[in-house]
Amino acid sequence: MGEETNHIPETDEQLRAKKRKRRVRSAILYPAILIALSFLCYFLYRIDDFVHVCRIEPGTTIVDSSSIRPYDSVFDGFFRSGKYPKLLPYLLYRHFVIPEGATEIGERAFLESGCLLLRSVEIPASMEKIGRQAFAECRNLTTIELPEGVETIESFAFRRCVNLKRVELPNSLKTIGGGAFAGCTALERIRIPDGVKEIGLGAFLGCSSLADVELPPGVNVAPEAFSGTLVPPEKIPVQE
Q1: Rounded to whole angstroms, how far apart are CA atoms 114 and 117?
Q2: Contact residues for 118 (Cβ-Cβ < 8 A; gap 6+)
Q3: Residues 188-220: pLDDT tens digits?
Q4: For residue 110, how many other CB atoms are within 10 A of its CB?
Q5: What is the pTM of this model?
Q6: CATH number of 50-235: 1.20.120.160, 3.80.10.10, 3.60.15.10, 3.40.50.300?
Q7: Coil, strand or helix: which one is 175?
């Protein structure tokens, strides 16, 4: 026969001590959880108010990913030590302001900055060019208004901005690059200004909701510019 395990029953004092520990733990833990949840709810409620003003060095005219990445003073207390490189506070912002004086949004500027929550961008009157893939994959971007002065939208600038519903293009615009708005499935209408001379290959390819397009006379429309849209073929000028 194996040895019998000796079980010593706990005394009343030991049981009372365990109960006291449970009560103390509950008295600390539950309020802490409630406070943490309250802060989280408040933070999620206020996140839509956060506006990030992009920083560019004096004399610099190109907004690139490094202009978007710097930590904001609101979060400096949390991130100054640099111990949390993966917690990038700029990702929390939904609204970005590009400062006056910038003339170009550089290639992959917002794409490389992980524009997860980006909804809107305030673009200054000094802007002249939207670079290649500048806003590509910004899936929460809903509106874009380009000011007078912008002349070029380069290839894939707004590719797969799937929630982009309203696009305002300036009369100064001359070129819309290939695939510039490809895959913008929420876009329903677009007015191409009279100054535009060229719409690139597949510029609006796969914009499956796009049904209303205003095109200026004499515009050069590349093949498949409106392929995969609801635009009637007879509205698209045929290249000779």
Answers
A1: 9
A2: 93, 94, 96, 110, 135, 138, 140, 141
A3: 999 999 999 999 999 999 999 999 999 999 899
A4: 26
A5: 0.73
A6: 3.80.10.10
A7: strand
